[in-house]
Amino acid sequence: MFSTVTRSLAQAPDFSSTQFRTALGMFATGVTIVTARTPAGELVGLTANSFNSVSLTPPLVLWSLSQAASSMAAFRQGSHYAINILAADQQALALRFASRSGDRFADLAFTNGRGGAPLISGSVASFECFNRSRYEEGDHVIFVGEVEYCSYRTGASPLLYHSGQFYTEHPL
């Protein structure tokens, strides 16, 4: 028989943050670029692999952002953002939007979504989201977006990330 222990607090971790990050890296993810516009119209965007579906009805997705991110104010205050799932040939864009320097949008082919957020050309899918809710948890904020519009390219190969490296799909 299993015994259940009721605790009011989680136990302190018995691993380092490096071990935790390495273990998290074992989960293969897709790669996204989340984009928005500030109220002044300035473009903001960043690479994120913390994207996930939440609900079909209503259509909800989530992603998370470090509380220390320079773009935090834009995403907290903005009413809309777009999540662009990158294609296998967009690794350079993933690296560019993960960098803290340079103009991320320089020479980038995109269209403006219905809510004003940039939709990156060549992405395998995009989700135009109303900024529905935010939850502060640990050192990140979890953003839940209500999807107002979505699009995808049938047959396009996504960019994948696993254990610190980029991959593309290979059907089994």
Automatic annotation (TrEMBL):
Family: Belongs to the non-flavoprotein flavin reductase family.
UniProt-listed Pfam families: Flavin_Reduct (PF01613)
InterPro entries: Flavin_Rdtase-like_dom, NADH-dep_flavin_reductase, Split_barrel_FMN-bd
Native source species: Rhodoferax antarcticus ANT.BR
PANTHER family for this protein: FLAVIN REDUCTASE, FLAVIN-DEPENDENT MONOOXYGENASE, REDUCTASE SUBUNIT HSAB
Enzyme Commission number: 1.16.8.1
Name of the featured protein: Flavin reductase like domain protein
Gene expressing this chain: cobR
GO molecular function, one term: riboflavin reductase (NADPH) activity
UniProt KW keywords: Oxidoreductase
Flavin reductase like domain sequence ranges: 24-168
